Amino acid sequence: MTTSPAPLVPAARPLRADARRNRERVLKAARAVFADKGTEAQIDDVARRAKVGVGTVYRHFPTKEALLDALVRERFEEIAGFAREALEREDAWEGFCELIWRAAERNAADLAFCEAIASTDKSAIVEEVGLMRSTDELIARAKAEGRMRADATREDVPMMMAGASAVMRLSPTAWRRYLTIMLDGLRAAAS
Q1: Closest of 6, 7, 27 to residue 15, by C-alpha
Q2: Cα distances (angstroms) measured from residue 37 to each of 102, 116, 187
Q3: How far, in whole angstroms, is CA 138 from its chain's centroid?
Q4: Are residues 84 and 54 part of one domain?
Q5: Which residues constitute the domain of residue 102?
Q6: 187: which strand partners?
Q7: Which of 38, 67, 144, 147 is buried most, with the most CB atoms less than 10 Å from its CB?
Q8: Does residue 170 sit in the same domain as residue 138?
Q9: Within a 10 A sphere around the Cβ of 148, how many other Cβ atoms?
Q10: How many beta carbons lie within 10 A of that of residue 143, not counting itself?
């Protein structure tokens, strides 16, 4: 009995230069539109701001959710970069706090991202981009240094960020106070 070879799956072709430029224009426009209007923004708004047709947006992102997911992934990749920088700090607690503040400052300017992380589990993306691994390392080091509560867990971080994001949607300034309180709650008690 002979078996036929498995069919070859063609590799995804890279985008042409003009298609790549259009995709970048769409993403740039979507960042601004969704940051301002949140998830209520429409594809028409994105197309208008990008100065492309609605069909061009749909060619790159078949649904509004696909476009939002691309923006969320982009933001988490950026925050993962913040985490890698925080790992370079000698004091892990200071690195952890710096990571949380930088991420929160960035999130405060993006209504759609706040809505997305407050309402949907994005842990798969967080893991894929390496943010979870870096955060785990910062937490372990901060605990070992005696600067973070021994009972702090990785689950505290997304809950804290979702809470801060919920406050950001309600008050553009109060979130700083609440984030300070949440970070103080993770700090090890002074002996």
Answers
A1: 27
A2: 22, 13, 35
A3: 18
A4: no
A5: 68-186
A6: 148
A7: 67
A8: yes
A9: 23
A10: 17
Q: What angle do CA 7, 10, 16 make, to 5 degrees?
A: 170
Bridge partners (DSSP) listed for residue 148: 187
* pLDDT above 50 for 191: no
Q: pLDDT grade, residue 1 (50/70/90)?
A: low
CA dihedral of residues 159, 164, 168, 169 (deg, nearest 10):
20
Specify the number of domains making up the chain.
Answer: 2
Question: How far is the C-alpha of 191 from the C-alpha of 175, rounded, in Å?
Answer: 29
Over residues 82-128, the pLDDT tens digits come to 999 999 999 999 999 999 999 999 988 888 888 887 778 888 999 99
Q: Are residues 79 and 28 in the same domain?
A: no
77 and 121 both lie in a single domain: yes
Question: Quick check: is 24 in a domain?
Answer: yes
pTM of the entire predicted model? 0.81
